[in-house]
Amino acid sequence: MNKVIGICDLHNDPHLGELTKNRPLGAVTFLGRYGLIDFTLSNFSNSHIDKVYVLVRKGIVALRKHIGSGSIWTNNTKLGYVELLINEKGLTNKAFNTDINNIKSGLDIDELDFDQAVIAPGYMLSSMDFRPLVSKHITSGAAITCIYKHVDNADKDYFQCDKYKLDSDNHIVKSSKNHGRTDEADISLDTFIISKKALLKLIKDSSKVSELYSIKDMVNHYIEDGSYDVRGIEFNGYVVPILTLEGYVSHSLNLLNYHIRNQLFFEDWPIYTTTHNTPPALYGKDADVQNSFIANGAIVKGKVYNSIISRDVVIEKGSDVRNSIIFTKTLIGKDTKLDHVLIDKNVKVLNVKKMVGSEEDIIVISQGATI
Amino acid sequence: MASKNKVVAMILAGGKGTRLESLTKKTAKPAVSFAAKYRIIDFPLSNCANSGINTVGVLTQYESTFLDSYIGNGEKWGLNGVHCLMSTLAPRQTEEGANWYKGTADAITQNIDFLDGADPEYVLILSGDHIYKTNYLDMIKLHITSEADVTISVIEVDPSEASRFGIMVCDKDDNIIQFQEKPKNPISNLASMGVYIFSWKVLRKYLKDDSKDPNSEHDFGKNIIPKMLASKKKLKAYRFKGYWKDVGTLASLHEANMDIALDKMELNLYDEDSSNRIYTEDVYSVPQYVGKKGSIKRSIANQGAIILGHVDSSVISTGVTIEPDAKVSRCVVMENAIVKRGAKVHNAIIAPNSVVLEDSEINLGNDEVVLIDNGRK
Predict the structure, then answer these.
(1) Of A158, A353, B187, B337, which shows the fewest CB atoms inside 10 Å?
(2) Domain spanning A282-365 has what CATH number?
(3) What's the predicted TM-score (pTM) here?
């Protein structure tokens, strides 16, 4: 049986403006309850990949706080682990802070006991079973397999992702940026399955090609010069990358739709997250809630429509919150009207009584502000 | 103050709880769901954790399998640390033979070895089926400073209810001078909460003596306390302030749930001090969702609940679905129950995994609490 390790690669995380100013994307609250990285870590866990390394570019403190010992994602807590790695040298020279240099500084790949590695980013919303993908990869004999999705809205949700061109044997013959010129495309999910031998070669080659290259850059390099067997396997399930602030908001609110939610959440595929010992949500006598997610610890005394209310949020009487996302421990004071607003955590909305944004122009309030 | 093993807590969790009817048919009373997210025993266990009591024995007997696995190594309450010892103690076969626990005191007597191993100065005896939040250190302090042999936590109850409890009569310094177990004519309204702190050496002797008494029922309230009182030991009353409820009947279980749903706040589950919370198992469910035509008010609801119908003055647990056009009011809906489309239910406890059929009307306009329990295979 093949031994598989998981590598959650956070080096290529996109920037989500205000949301990722002070925290890594993986630790950003999602649906009022999760951290974004929970999806990838749970996919590893549910795929029975019990040895997981997280390659952290920055913000290790926030990630450490969220992930803790990692035991909630591990099957056997003696044999399994979720280990956070940083490239200390990369901290002084950002250009060299790549995933490959991170691996080189913290992991002895040669010594590690594994046959295949699954490398996945921390910003894909998906319930992805890696097991059938790994089996296909092994049967194909490919050195490196890139997971992709065939989409018909490449001009929308997958802008700036890599897209692949494949031949009839599923070899990837070309990789390029998706600029949304066509609707249909085979979009890279930045998820790779790679044998130990190939990973060792990739790391070794990178020092000859470019020490600034990432794993993804090296894979694209192999595709371009055709020197190595790189193939694609299609993933058919729900998967969306969180690439922008607008995407974060729209994909979050889209999940209020039952049919979309049922493509991401499955009964036999739990998404594990850290517990915060919060009591159930409490609704007052004037609470009026429709089409919304309400997390535990929230106290709702006003109106909440089409919104996501996180843990320990208080919505005071007379408030009217619509099409908005409210992060952890924020207080919405009495008689406040909010529409198309994203409020980060620990905010107190006391004196501003009305904020109205729009779908194209959402208003963002920074962490910790009193307004 | 409580150093490593100065205080050991023993939680009595073996009772059958017959007055909860079929809710306890396959589940021990302390493991019954409470307040949408918790189980009753989470309260004494969290109180122990928040009081810095690290060694806890849970005495189980009736339907102990689920309760034992729920308690596990105590991790849910943080009681799995390096200085902690968490153990469930079910009756077992010994050299002397096999015995069920014959009474509350006998349950402790049969675990003298466990206590001797922990070597405490004080033993805190708790009940596994009471809802309250407290830090036991205040009571322990009183016990130590007053040099009592036993300190009993008491609460003032309505005189009309006093005959349901063990009743204490105290002198002006709160020394207990008389004790009546469930008296017909109570002479005081100070009820025992079934929470005792004993000095271990004293208790150990009384347990040993009591175990040899053929006329004893081996019960703390009926035997041990009266014997200590008779032999002029020092019994101190600790006046508990705050919310406390024995949820031994369907009506009291329903009422305690309503107290939280209707935000009476005396229990304060929403304490901002995160070291004063009630801990429990966290299930990995999706967030709670309220649908486009749903409504919920004067209620609490846990993650994983799906509310597509109308909820008023109710408690909605994990995995519950309230279908469109269904109406629940003053209901305690336990985990994974389904209230089908168009059904109307009032004043009910809906047991785990139960189904309320489409368009059915249950208990409407009735003040008495009913139990709906059809979820077992």
Answers:
(1) B187
(2) 2.160.10.10
(3) 0.92
